[in-house]
Amino acid sequence: MPFEHWFYTLPLRLRSLFRRTQVDQELQQELRDHLEQQIKVNLARGMSSEEARYSALRALGGVTQVEEQCRDTRGVNTIENFLQDLRYGLRQLRRNPGFSILAILCLTLGIGANAAVFSWVEGILFRPYPAVTHQEQLLALTGTARGESEPTGLSWPDFLDLEKSCTLPDSFFVTKIMGTTLSIGDRAEVTTGSIVSANYFDAIGVHPILGRGFEPGEDSGRNAHPVTVISYQLWKGRFKGDPQIIGKTQRLSGTLHTIVGVMPEGFYGTFVGWAMQFWVPASMEETFEAGGYKLEDRGARWIEAYVRLKPGVTLAQAQQEMSAVAARLESAYPATNRGRGIKLWPLWQTPFNNAGTLLPTLEIMLAVVVFVLLIACANVGNLLLVRSFARRHEMTVRLAIGAGRGRLVKQLVTEGLVLSAFGAVGGLLVAHWCRHALVLLFPARGGVAMHLPGEIDWRVLALSGGVCLLATLVVGVVPAIQTRKLDLAVALKADSAGVVGGVGRAWVRSGLVLVQVSLSFVLLVGAGLLLQSLQRIRNSSPGFSTHGVLETVVPLVSAGYDAPRAQTFQDELLTRVKALPAVESAAFARMTPLSYGSFSSAPIAVDGYQPPPEEQAIVQYNEVGPNYFATMGIPLVSGREFTRADDEKAALLAVVNETMAAQYWRGKNPIGERVQVKGRWMQVVGVARDSKYESVRETPKPFFYVPLRQNFSRGADLFIRTPLNAETMATALAREVHTLDPGLALYEVITLQEQVDRSTSPQMVAVTLVGVLGGLALVLAAIGLYGVMSYAVSQSTRELGLRMALGADASNLLRLVISRGLALTAGGVLLGGVVALALTRLLGNLLYKVSPYDPLAFGSALIVMTVAALAACFLPAWRATRTDPARALRN
Asked: Does residue 739 have a pLDDT over 70?
């Protein structure tokens, strides 16, 4: 029955709403017909014409009343009232353009900041891979090591065993970022790519628009399948959109690869932070990954992988199955898997790309933009509140002629909705313009900019809509509450609230200012803490020289150099570089500290050291050339560093760091002792000071070095100690490289300080964003304080005039108004200080050698807030001193 009722009444209601004039005319005609029919009946009963009409009208009950009852029965009055309120609200905004622009601007900034951060969270954490299907089913897959907090990679044999043994995932796939260089003029253009498993494109549900993906089996064998799939961007840019591209070749890392496919536009791979330009099968791993062939080495953990779960399978269920498989692998292969496990991660916690790196920053940003939104809403609420006082006469008249208080509340809430809607539209435009802004805070590397796009989809729009509704409630309900206090007997009397005496009646306005000041203070404290942390990170010693040392790469691998030819080139280049003016020393090494690349690692055994049963001694190492420690400024505690004589013909040697010496030789001098690496015994000839290897924030860990000439790498980095700047040295280096081989292109030349700065980019992003949003919050809070004080002065004209008539001078009035503003500020700072003490400890993951309760950060925030408050109060205070006593008392 209810369904049948709605089935028949809904069309009538829609018609009444959209064709109101026609429906009203039909209603009036129907009532006239009914009235005339009743008059005819009355005439037939013998009544006179006048009596018949009067009787019919009395029986009908009044035409106007009946019309209203019929309109109420349609059930569209609520919508009509809303549309009426909407039109009235728009007229009010048009009549007060200054107020409207300021209110909409505040809401635009507040809602825009929220929408921008929502888009970053969506595009970086939750759905980071455009075009990839069902991303909610994807999980990152890593290894773990007992006693270590950081995840590790997987080995290819372990990955294959997991794929064979686990039944809950729908698919496993590998995607490991790497890169090569393409010669462009006299420079090398870096191109990023991925080493992937053969099922990669099928697993993610993205297929080439030209050619094919990888076929089963193309990810096995040693350098067996030199094929590549390229991105749409590379196809359009480097190959000019050649429709006959399939089957053509491109030299990647010195090997000619046949192009077998082109991916669709808008697909950038599955790595957060960089857009992939090409993909090669895992069988070509040795060509792009240093350290030799790893596909058959169970101890080589280099894989970054994902799994796609079957529908209905939870992370906990899949984790339980994989942990069981990992336990079986540990039992079956104790030499390589002792203490090793497997862990699954949701996409937003992926530890091997920038999702995990940016997660702490984006978490902080979510809290910060909520603060900014609340400040903006409080500001607009205060503006509306002040405006509602100016409209008391209008509200009083409407109440006097019969309007209900609920009707006034609906009107004010509707006006708040109008403001919020405009603010939401403006905010979404701001978010659209800022969706790629995050990448601007990260420096380009080798000419390649990062790829960190925001994603504005229906989820972001829904969240922004929720934010708009929240803003509507705040900015609309606050002034609406005041309508409850309208007293018809006194509402038209002049209000003479004083600057001091009116505090009790202005508690709402003052309370909103307290909220703004307190939240702004919290943001300023957070920005101060993050800024101090960043300064300490960048000023702390990483254990090597950051100034006076330059780093660069000559891309021999992509130029097709084999190992003997590369070694000859490196020797000749090193001789030429050392002969350059102002060059103090130079050395090659396979890896640069604090870069994204991975150091080599291997199981070790030490004479006389028996590891605990659950421990597997796997230590990272770097392959370095002669004079490396002198060039880098890493002191040797004892022993010597490597020389030109420590080549492939000499005895195998190693230099260990202090932590490794202390852990494995336990106070004994390791010089002359032996350490076994990958089954080969090496003699320790030196002990080097600890330094930072992968992160400035890392704790000391075992590490060792081996001679580059005994474990040669064609892709070594060149380090130069010189007082010359990077630009001058780059010109000299390019000249020397071209002399040796005109076909080579030099990679970028940077200082090691710049390398340190790049490694701390997430902290820099956090400082910048919190600083910008904190500054925005400060401005909004100052505007709010100015508005309250300005209104208080305008409403205190009689009191100020009386004070001046009684002898108060300009300085007294200036002090009076400013002290009121500073009292509000002090209350807000006190409240904000309590909140900051509770919240700043959440910054722990981003702070480095800085206490969350650092007094300098709190003191600096207090000074900034006080200066802003003085600036906000000065103009209203100055206006107070210009009051004319005679005119004020006369009015």
From this structure: yes
